[in-house]
Amino acid sequence: MNISRSGYRVFSANSTPASTELAKKITERLGVELGKSVVFQESNSETKVDLKESVRGQDVFIIQTIPRDVNTAIMELLVMTYALKSACARNIIGVVPYFPYSKQCKLRKRGSVVCKLLASMLAKAGASHVITMDLHQKEIQGFFSFPVDNLRASPFLIQYIQEEVRTQIRLLMTLKSFLTPLVCLRAQSFAERLRLGLAVMHGDAHHSESDMTDGRNSPPSTRTTAGHTGLELPLMMAKEKPPISVVGDVGGRIAIVVDDIIDDVEDFVAAAEALKERGAYKIYIMATHGLLSAEAPRLIEESAIDEVVVTNTVPHEVQKLQCSKIKTVDVSMILAEAIRRIHNGESMSYLFRNITVDD
């Protein structure tokens, strides 16, 4: 039996090589072995977890990166959490660098807040703590009934800019379809830390995500009723979204577009084309989580984007084989330090030094 002298275990909730890569890097930094377990799907697609060592009375950290099959990854995390609870682990801490369903954190039309549901499921399964990174909305922390440490990737991304991008640059705020207050503040924070100017992109290439967040199309505008029809509300004029325009001088400069998640890239490609038309020298796209779904690698490879920089919170080795412009920044250092500090009961404030709420 592999008895760790450190008094805690680190498991990976996914047994595929791509998903265990981050877990292996974290355990190497901690100087411990990855816990022995088997995670697999039965012939009927049910998830099964088999722990191969005792965890009784110990702190257990479950590292779960989210591959393309999101729902399977969630079930792996939940089933392993419950298995550890049944095995009498003292504390069960989920290390989920990219928290799935984080975009579904607002009520849209007749939908549901799925992110809150997932937080409740983790608590019910037996989790006592979650370590994550750059939540899509910081308010998601309020969905949990236990502590959540929302780490930041901005120090690593800023370090990459300082070391790899040596030309005079101007940090560029991302386009309007992603232009939430959080992204605006993040771009401004990057610009202030790097002592750069700030340019803003206004307009939209496609639909805006915010159009679907407030239920403006529910109930339907016309309704057949008998008797009293009720109050007639003033009719709001429809919005007319202008084409993408750049506010600020980007001629001859390197433009950096920042966001927290890169998934569908059509809007980023449209932004890059607009920047090139305005004379930008190079265009970098930077984000914490590189989901890069569907045809994203091909679209990036064929676009005016020079480089896409993401962290390894999500496995994307397959996408890197399809697109040479995708670069990865390793964040295993801060995740390993968070695990060590939580187990030893040390303050987490060191990991947030000089970091503001806008980062």
Automatic annotation (TrEMBL):
What Gene Ontology molecular-function terms does this entry list? magnesium ion binding
Which Pfam families would you find in this protein's record?
A: Pribosyl_synth, Pribosyltran_N
The biased composition feature labelled Polar residues covers 215-227
Q: Name one GO biological process term.
A: nucleotide biosynthetic process
Superkingdom is Eukaryota
- Which SMART domains does this entry report, sorted A to Z? Pribosyltran_N
Q: Which Gene3D superfamilies match?
A: 3.40.50.2020
Ordered alphabetically, the record's keywords are:
Nucleotide biosynthesis
* Chain intervals for the UniProt region annotation (Disordered): 207-228
The residues forming a coiled coil are: none
Question: Which residue spans traverse the membrane?
Answer: none
Keyword NAD present in the record's keywords: the answer is: no
Ribose-phosphate pyrophosphokinase N-terminal domain boundaries: 16-126
Provide the family line: Belongs to the ribose-phosphate pyrophosphokinase family.
Quote the protein name from its UniProt record.
Ribose-phosphate pyrophosphokinase N-terminal domain-containing protein
- Please spell out the taxonomic lineage of the organism that makes this protein: Eukaryota, Metazoa, Chordata, Craniata, Vertebrata
